[in-house]
Amino acid sequence: MPLAKAVANRRELEGASALACGGGSERRTRAMARRAAAVRGYRGLRLWAAAALLGCLLGAAAEPASDDATDGPPQRYSPDWASLDSRPLPEWFDAAKVGVFLHWGVFSVPAWGSEWFWWSWKGESRPEYERFVRERFPPGTTYADFAHSFTALDFRPDDWARLFEQAGARYVVLTTKHHEGFTNWGSSVSWNWNSVDTGPHRDLVGDLGDALRKRNISYGLYHSLFEWFNPLYLQDKNNHFKTQQFVEEKTLPELYELVLRYKPDLIWSDGEWEAPDTYWNSTSFLAWLYNDSPVKDTVVVNDRWGINCSCHHGGYYNCQDKYKPGTLPNHKWEMCSSIDKHSWGYRSSMQIEDLLETSSIIRELVETVSYGGNYLLNVGPTKEGVIVPIFQERLMALGAWLGINGEAIYETKPWKTQKENASESVWYTSKGTTVYAIFLTWPEESVLKLASPEPTLSAQVTMLGFSSPLKWQKFHEKGMAIILPSLSPLQLPMQNAWTLKLVGVS
């Protein structure tokens, strides 16, 4: 682009943003545009200025610390992975440990197969999906027709928030847009394919966020970078991702809008796997997020920002669905799991054997936290906005267990040993000098033998949920044999796993 035209374009965008913000914010928006032009060139400038404009309209753009800051040094984080990956992870995320994941969208209407219903039906043309639609819906039904039945009539965000609080969740991640492209807020770039223009006719993202923040539960927003059948995306794909029309007109405007409007604590990115991060402009967006967004100091992001980014770049790693590292990673990570083992979205055809038992949920949680991860447990609400009773029961059971054993989960760190001598039944966490041994099977003769902790003469052992100290004796040269309470199973504080608190061990 010739220099004169580039300067003219920049001035035009600066002026438009400043006009929208009002004279008092003119210096701010022009400074943002200058920084964008220096780092990203005109294409990045256009997106950056659009973000500034949207921020002004929403009253959410970040003010600089002073007038001097507008002409100060360059951004702290530059749009490259070496710089972005150096950002410390906000402490709240590691402390939280437990979250609830929600997959909710138009796919909740057919409620069959999985949340990938549209792709299975039209992308893969699987005959069982063709038959399902033919037998249950009028002739000529399209996927878009399902949106009218996505009513959310029974969606009570305060009830959801109370349930998640009772489940022990410290953060909740809602699907704002899955690969189908339907947005659960009134997206400015998803006309007539969003929850305000059709279906529920309400801002689902905003309503849930308001309810969660009343209870001090952190709010995460899942967002799919790509859309299966969006013509702009398919055009870019056919061009081998050398063009970015879909990114510029859909993906990035949505991300900026979500951040500026809802100020999320976490962005859970997905749908990145077909294109490199350079196509998605991921590093440019994250540089803005970390430097100038209204959540720049607190927001957390995952690792799904382009081909080969997973498990390599991002605030924390979730690598792949239901990821289990098997050893202690050297980077913060998250394991996302689903109560329905075969789907993330609600399925009306699910059977009881398709669901994780409470004992399995607690086992996954304990193993994950022992290896330094967070545990994000998914449920799929119905099209009406109901979290079905069996999902509620599992969440409440998890919360009951955490009500007694949460001290060994929240705000803990991995110990020097994660599990007892390669056993799958005893796992460790720590908090300062205190060590927690969580055992999943009650031992024979009510004596738990631990080889890893080395007790001092003043070592003390208690069981969470049980008031009296427990007796112990040396086990071999360094370990401990702990005498558990002589109680019937019905008298035990919990039935799925138990925690010993060890003080005075090395």
Automatic annotation (TrEMBL):
<dbReference type="InterPro" id="IPR016286">
    <property type="entry name" value="FUC_metazoa-typ"/>
</dbReference>
<dbReference type="InterPro" id="IPR017853">
    <property type="entry name" value="GH"/>
</dbReference>
<keyword id="KW-0443">Lipid metabolism</keyword>
<dbReference type="GO" id="GO:0005764">
    <property type="term" value="C:lysosome"/>
</dbReference>
<dbReference type="InterPro" id="IPR013780">
    <property type="entry name" value="Glyco_hydro_b"/>
</dbReference>
<dbReference type="InterPro" id="IPR057739">
    <property type="entry name" value="Glyco_hydro_29_N"/>
</dbReference>
<keyword id="KW-0458">Lysosome</keyword>
<comment type="similarity">
    <text>Belongs to the glycosyl hydrolase 29 family.</text>
</comment>
<feature type="domain" description="Glycoside hydrolase family 29 N-terminal">
    <location>
        <begin position="74"/>
        <end position="407"/>
    </location>
</feature>
<protein>
    <recommendedName>
        <fullName>Tissue alpha-L-fucosidase</fullName>
        <ecNumber>3.2.1.51</ecNumber>
    </recommendedName>
</protein>
<keyword id="KW-0326">Glycosidase</keyword>
<keyword id="KW-0325">Glycoprotein</keyword>
<dbReference type="GO" id="GO:0016139">
    <property type="term" value="P:glycoside catabolic process"/>
</dbReference>
<dbReference type="InterPro" id="IPR031919">
    <property type="entry name" value="Fucosidase_C"/>
</dbReference>
<keyword id="KW-0732">Signal</keyword>
<comment type="subunit">
    <text>Homotetramer.</text>
</comment>
<keyword id="KW-0378">Hydrolase</keyword>
<comment type="function">
    <text>Alpha-L-fucosidase is responsible for hydrolyzing the alpha-1,6-linked fucose joined to the reducing-end N-acetylglucosamine of the carbohydrate moieties of glycoproteins.</text>
</comment>
<dbReference type="Pfam" id="PF01120">
    <property type="entry name" value="Alpha_L_fucos"/>
</dbReference>
<dbReference type="GO" id="GO:0006004">
    <property type="term" value="P:fucose metabolic process"/>
</dbReference>
<dbReference type="InterPro" id="IPR000933">
    <property type="entry name" value="Glyco_hydro_29"/>
</dbReference>
<dbReference type="GO" id="GO:0004560">
    <property type="term" value="F:alpha-L-fucosidase activity"/>
</dbReference>
<dbReference type="GO" id="GO:0006629">
    <property type="term" value="P:lipid metabolic process"/>
</dbReference>
<feature type="domain" description="Alpha-L-fucosidase C-terminal">
    <location>
        <begin position="418"/>
        <end position="502"/>
    </location>
</feature>
<dbReference type="InterPro" id="IPR018526">
    <property type="entry name" value="Glyco_hydro_29_CS"/>
</dbReference>
<dbReference type="Pfam" id="PF16757">
    <property type="entry name" value="Fucosidase_C"/>
</dbReference>
